[in-house]
Amino acid sequence: MESVNIRELNDRIQRESSFVDLLSLEMGKVIVGQKHLTENLLIALLANGHILLEGMPGLAKTLAISTLSKAVNAKFSRIQFTPDLLPADVVGTLIYSQKKEEFEVHKGPVFANFVLADEINRAPAKVQSALLEAMQERQVTLGDSTFALPDPFLVMATQNPVEQEGTYPLPEAQVDRFMLKVLVDYPKKDEEKLIIRMNNTGEFPHPDPVVSPEEIVRARSVVREVYMDEKIERYIVDIVFATREPEQYGLKGLKDLIAYGGSPRASISLSAAAKAYAFIKRRGYVIPEDVRAVCPEVLRHRIGLTYEAEAENVTTEEIISQVINAVVVP
User: Residue-wise pLDDT tens for the chain (330 aa)?
Assistant: First the structure.
């Protein structure tokens, strides 16, 4: 690609990505701190992926997601996952009408632009799997009919740590469909003081709609145009292959710690997330730092640990760190 074209693309991306700052500002009005969470929500939104947030209750996970939907002025629905939830409560069902003497379609809350699956690991696998078709194919089948979901469509799930009582680990097939998994941590001391002050005074800012769903759909097509060099593509493939065959990358010590590595979906997600990250940084091309920045969120839920790794208290974070340091940067 000629340098002139890169310059033109760069100028265009800078113009097209101007709304990102507005979105971040609106979210910053409501969410105190949690910059990492806000940034990853924008990456998932722009890369047309789904996001899984994990953290203890009370860390503004639900608030962040609902604030983003208000700033985008999109249709939002919240599903509270509980042990007695049924698949029909998520996707909808067919109900027989005695008046019409036929079955009528009653669409579930999944028919929205932003779907918040709150505490997704509180419900059994049967309910969690009801989301699979919606997340992957962007459609729902009820009876003999298939219904397309609105565009943009984004599932944002929150989950409590699996060690907590009354939680079900998500099936690997479903976890893999989340582009990003973000760990939400406690706020800093000064941030928590501000949170207390806001709650004591009862003065809660309200986000204004600053972008439309149509603009998000248009921005997604621009994100796909962000230039990615063949060397960056090779770098992404090397990172993912290092999680599958660590010994080939000088990481023999990881062979007995990794049960399974990232699937091709990991490579696709890493590429899409890196492009979205470059777009947020107002750049028309991807650099290795973009890939490294999104690597932990893309890979942490796609690497399976062996019993040996769990016995030695090895975490996926440590494995990802070793992989990133071992793979040669182009």
Answer: 444 477 888 888 888 888 888 888 888 887 777 788 888 999 999 999 999 988 877 777 778 888 888 888 888 899 988 888 888 888 888 888 788 777 888 888 999 989 998 888 888 777 877 787 788 888 888 878 888 898 889 998 888 776 666 677 777 777 888 999 998 888 888 888 888 887 877 777 788 888 888 889 888 988 998 889 899 999 999 999 999 998 988 888 888 888 888 889 999 999 999 999 999 998 888 999 999 999 999 999 999 888 998 888 888 899 999 999 988 888
Domain with CATH 3.40.50.300 in the chain: 3-186
- CATH topology for 3-186 is Rossmann fold (3.40.50)
pTM for the full model?
0.86
Note the CATH number of domain 226-326.
Answer: 1.10.8.80
Please report, in angstroms and rounded to a whole number, the separation of the first and last CA atoms in the chain: 17
Rounded to whole angstroms, the Cα distance separating 228 from 284 reads 9
- The count of other CB atoms within 10 Å of the CB of residue 205 is 12
